[in-house]
Every structure is written in structure tokens, then in C-alpha cells.
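Priority: medium. Attachment 1 of 2:
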């Protein structure tokens, strides 16, 4: 088995006629927590959706390796069964479906095992305790009437229950107050293990400071512009993305004549 839970090689992707990812290279070893940062419009959420196989996104070059297997052409459900999980930036409502039934069905779909209800409830209660969530929460319909913080807690509850091999968190801290961020970050930290890798997509340091980061990657104009240790996040907080934007524009300008000549 590969030491890398995720390896992205020269990944290009588009939506319609718009190229968004333009040669992404990125590696996440198993057991590590990596952050993906970058300005708005740089392609962070696109990368998350491409990793999960969202049909609206077309991969035009490159590949995605998950635990050494090329999953670039796999359907989203096949990726989920292999242990890939995406926490959405904007979770959708599912009226008429209780969170309890949704979670039980999801677990059965991913693992191929339909646990007896008592066994499932015991497991679920353990995860609710981890997230400091009341048991009545799972009787509500999926995300229906949820606050922003409740939606994100619901996503992290799914993560805790499904126990994937790689968790991609797409701005899970967006819209959360300080207390909710603390709950979510502590839960993610508690789930960290030698077999679970994290790719945390965010603009902010608030959640990253609680996660014991191993690596930070910066996405600008559809490419990884810089990678470094946790100190890189502090540098970005202090200095912004101006220098990296300028470097990306210079790279684009240098490539355009070559493209025309070709």
C-alpha cells in the first residue's frame, strides 16, 4: 500500500469552457493534516469537487491517485466506498429524511454492512459525544432549518461515523462562531490517526491552529504556487497573497507566447 493517501499529478479540469485547474500537483501522506489555502477564485472548491468526482467538472489532463490507485475515472460512490470523504462548503437540505436514517444508510452504502439498529445507535452515540452534540439532533431532517454551524457539525458527524481514509474539508469553518469552530476542530483533532489523512481547505487560521498541521499548500490561478510548513499559513495571514498572485501572473504571461508559437 502506498505511503501517500492522495497524489495529484498535473491535474487539469474545467467547467464548461472555463479552465480552472491548470496543472495541480499535490501529495498528502497517510496520517497527515494538510491545509489548502488561496484567494477567492483560485480553484480550491473546484479541486475538492474534482477529487470527489462531481460530474459537472471535466478532467482534461493528469490524474488522481488514492492509496496508489488511479481513481480519476471512478464515480463518486465508488470513491466514497474506497474511503474518500468530502465535507461540503454549502451542505444541501434533504427534506423528509431524518439525519439518523441518512447516516445509517450512508454507513451501509460505504461499508456494505447494514448494522443492527442497537449496534448502530451505540456507535452513533459515541460520535455525538465526541462532537458534544445532543442525541435529539439526529432526529431532525438533514440540514433542514439548520444554522450554518449545525450544518457543519452534521458534516463532521458524518465524517466521524464513516471513518474514511482521506477527509477533504471544504471550508468547514466558514460561517462558524468561535465556540463551534472549537468543537469542530477538537473533533477533527480527535479523529486524527495514522490511517486518516486530512486536506483542509480554508481562508482562515482559526481552525488550522487547533489541528497540528503538517503542511500548507497555496493554490493560485489553478496551480500550487507554494508549499511549506505550518509557518506558511502565518505568513499568508500577515502578508496576504499579493506576491504569489504576481508570480502566478508572471508564469501565465511567460507561457502564453509559447502556447501561441505551438
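Attachment 2 of 2:
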Amino acid at each position: 500500500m502506498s505511503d501517500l493517501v492522495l497524489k495529484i499529478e498535473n491535474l487539469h479540469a474545467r467547467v464548461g469552457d472555463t479552465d480552472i485547474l491548470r496543472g495541480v500537483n499535490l501529495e498528502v501522506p497517510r496520517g497527515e493534516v494538510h491545509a489548502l489555502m488561496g484567494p477567492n477564485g483560485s480553484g480550491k472548491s473546484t479541486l475538492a469537487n474534482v477529487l470527489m468526482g462531481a460530474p459537472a467538472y471535466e478532467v482534461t489532463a493528469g490524474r488522481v491517485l488514492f492509496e496508489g490507485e488511479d481513481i480519476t475515472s471512478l464515480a463518486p460512490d465508488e470513491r466514497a466506498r474506497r474511503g474518500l470523504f468530502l465535507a461540503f462548503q454549502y451542505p444541501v437540505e434533504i427534506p423528509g429524511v431524518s439525519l439518523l436514517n441518512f447516516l445509517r444508510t450512508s454507513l451501509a452504502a460505504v461499508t456494505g454492512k447494514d448494522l443492527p439498529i442497537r449496534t448502530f445507535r451505540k456507535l452513533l452515540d459515541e460520535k455525538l459525544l465526541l462532537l458534544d452534540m445532543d442525541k435529539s439532533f439526529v432526529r431532525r431532517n438533514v440540514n433542514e432549518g439548520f444554522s450554518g454551524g449545525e450544518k457543519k457539525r452534521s458534516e463532521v458527524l458524518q465524517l466521524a461515523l464513516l471513518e474514511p481514509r482521506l477527509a477533504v474539508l471544504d471550508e468547514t469553518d466558514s460561517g462558524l462562531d468561535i465556540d463551534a469552530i472549537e468543537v469542530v476542530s477538537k473533533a477533527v483533532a480527535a479523529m486524527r490517526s495514522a490511517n486518516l489523512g486530512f486536506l483542509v481547505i480554508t481562508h482562515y487560521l482559526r481552525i488550522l491552529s487547533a489541528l497540528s498541521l503538517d503542511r500548507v499548500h497555496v493554490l493560485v490561478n489553478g496551480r500550487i504556487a507554494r508549499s511549506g510548513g505550518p509557518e506558511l499559513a502565518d505568513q499568508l495571514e500577515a502578508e496576504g497573497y499579493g506576491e504569489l498572485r504576481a508570480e502566478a501572473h508572471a508564469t501565465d504571461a511567460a507561457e502564453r507566447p509559447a502556447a501561441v508559437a505551438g
